[in-house]
Amino acid sequence: NAVSYFSSSTSYTLAVQQSDLAQRLTMEAELHQAIADDDLYLEYQPIFAGNGQIHAIEALIRWRRANGDIVRPDIFIPIAEESRLIIQIGNWVVHRACHDLARLHRSGFENLKVHVNMAASEFTSSTLPDELRAIVDKSGIKPHHLCLELTESMLMQQPDHVIPIMSMLRRMGFGISLDDFGMGYSSLAHLKNLPISSMKIDRSFIMGLPQQSEDRAIVRTIIELGRNLHLNVIAEGVETDNQLAFLRQFGDTLIQGFVLSRPLHVDDLIRVYGAELDLPVTTNR
Ligand code: C2E
Ligand code: MG
Ligand code: MG
Ligand code: MG
């Protein structure tokens, strides 16, 4: 009957929540230890200009557990966000990324930029701009070499807190990219006033290219919008030659995805792309 159905489903839900909680607390403790043990590391996925040159790289965090398993950020970043570990991790990521970028600059990747993903809680901290400046200064790169990625949905959670911090960061010279664009609900009116330098078209729209006419229309429209707002547009998650060919019609669109390169360890990045470095890296925005 209805009553027992509801009561058993409630206790079932409660049990699931409790085991979720236990699992989360375990993972949180392990993650805490991982920071102490230096078990986090970064991979870098290139972002290519239309002419095939590397425009920037995006830092993507990974966690190597003691048993050798690699944990992806989609699993542990949300846990870190709930526990304030995210501030410590975020700081480490920016440090590591700026330090690696300085090394890449010295290795001939002149003017290369690094993109770093930020969590919502990092972006509401008013001390973020000064902290970033200190890290950038110490590593010897310039603010325009560092681009912070935040998602549209993050932005829309607390626009009144986040937008002033974004504006300050832009004034200081940092780049800001709107990640997973098209997945949130920011209005176009809002977009007009956002202090951003680029946007990344979410992979879900790229997946349907070139067959799906709706995806073709959406992607064309975002590219056009970006041009009109003087923003760099990056297509992310490009996996096939056909998707690539479609996007290459728009000469100014930047491209990131497995079809061109997977995320790489910094040493591999130097090994694979270092040889091509007679070519200058592009410098638009
Ligand atoms: P994101 O910033 O949107 O990054 C894109 C994700 O798509 C990455 O997954 C990347 O490895 C993957 N990807 C790239 N090209 C392709 C492709 O062609 N096909 C497919 N299927 N996937 C592709 P990853 O590294 O697992 O990162 C997942 C998410 O975790 C990121 O999404 C970002 O939101 C977050 N994240 C990663 N690193 C950090 C970090 O250092 N800090 C914070 N706060 N979040 C991070
Ligand atoms: Mg990103
Ligand atoms: Mg993305
Ligand atoms: Mg994403």
UniProtKB/TrEMBL annotation:
<protein>
    <submittedName>
        <fullName>EAL domain-containing protein</fullName>
    </submittedName>
</protein>
<feature type="domain" description="EAL">
    <location>
        <begin position="24"/>
        <end position="277"/>
    </location>
</feature>
